[in-house]
Amino acid sequence: MISLIPERNGSVGEIVSLIGSHPELEEHRDHLPASRLTRLRMLAQPAAIVLAIRALSLFITWAMCAVNNRPFDFRAWDGAFYYGLASHGYGGFDPSVTYDLEGRYFPDAPMAFFPGYSIAVRLLGLLFGGHLLAVAVLLSVAASVVAGYGIARLARHLGAGQRGQLAAVALTAGAPMSVVYAMPYPEALLVALAAWTLVAVLEQRWVLAGLGAAAAGLTSPMAAPLIPAVVAAGLVHLYRAHTHRIATLAAVILAPLGLLGYLLWVHEVSNVRGGYFGITQRAWGNHVDFGVTTVRWIFDTLTQSRDAFAVLTATAIIAAVIAVVRTPMPWPVWLYTAGTVALVVAHTGIIHDRVRLLLSAFPLLIVAAVRLGRLRGRTTVLVVGGVVLAGLWFGAYSLAVWPSSI
Predict the structure, then answer these.
(1) Is residue 286 left, alpha or beta, with left meaning phi > 0 and alpha meaning psi from -120 to 50?
(2) pLDDT digits (tens, 9 = 90+) for 260-283
(3) Is residue 293 within a helix (H) or strand (E), and if so which, with residue range?
(4) CB-based contacts of 126: which residues, under 8 Å, 6+ apart?
(5) Phi/psi at 17 (5° precision)
(6) Phi/psi at 236 (nearest 5 deg)?
(7) Which helix (H) or strand (E) holds 279?
(8) 106 and 98 Cβ atoms separated by less than 8 Å
């Protein structure tokens, strides 16, 4: 079996294992020359898919913005906060953008945005002459490529062959709201870290799993479900196995450090009761109500709204809930995915960003890709292509037509 995902001892030949078997070649594998050019071509497939989709996404978004006489701004909505954090940290924001729900000046509001992505932009900006917007966009695109390889590898663990792994890369790269994978948003970095952390858990590379979860926890609150997945898998391994116990224990300890460290820091330096949670409630109305607000909003949207964005957002939330209940996965991956969907549904505040937050539930798309990969090649291409185009349209619509935050 010719595989593209590198094994633990990653030789040049093994590096080609990132996307699994090549169906057309497998039958005659013993008669094929193991040319380096062929291996490099196969290795490049995920990157080529991701970059092609990113380019198409930007073109569609630019075209829709032009049609609607609306400028395409890479720093739209939350992108302005993440770019601002990279530029001047938490203390240098214009008062006109730091206000609470009642319109009062609220200087602690930027602390709702986790620092990991912006720190990376700031550090890379030092190497590239301080062009932070360009660095931010390139970092997001590069992270989406890294995520593509992690998703391909995770898809192989979930039973995908060559075709299914490539389908998984395409579906996740072209998911609804994936337009932020080329903007100053942390989602691409978060998905990359989450994908490779889950791979590390399944392959029992415990130190990498702990470090990945810690880094993700410093990047976004949507990394929260990754922490119990790593910790639970580590504790089960400690209970059942007698190998790699120190590394496993290290993963259990490391996993929550990023998220908890930032929450503790905000609690110490902010002037808001409740720290991070008090800030998000005052500025965005966020608090946990176990899905009551989300369910009411979905019902009102599907029965009264004429806005395509709102209707499709409600549909996506329902589909994600149904899928996570019905979709079989390795239990650590399912725990992470179920936690992500639960986190999206359970809190109040702005509802219109839920599709973007659901990007973190990418294992659902991987499972769909595994099934699509078992169909005939032309069918797989047509279905995946159609879904990707729909996802790219949704992202472009959100920036070019939808008037509210994403």
Answers:
(1) beta
(2) 999 999 999 988 888 888 888 887
(3) helix 292-304
(4) none
(5) -90, 15
(6) -65, -40
(7) helix 275-284
(8) yes
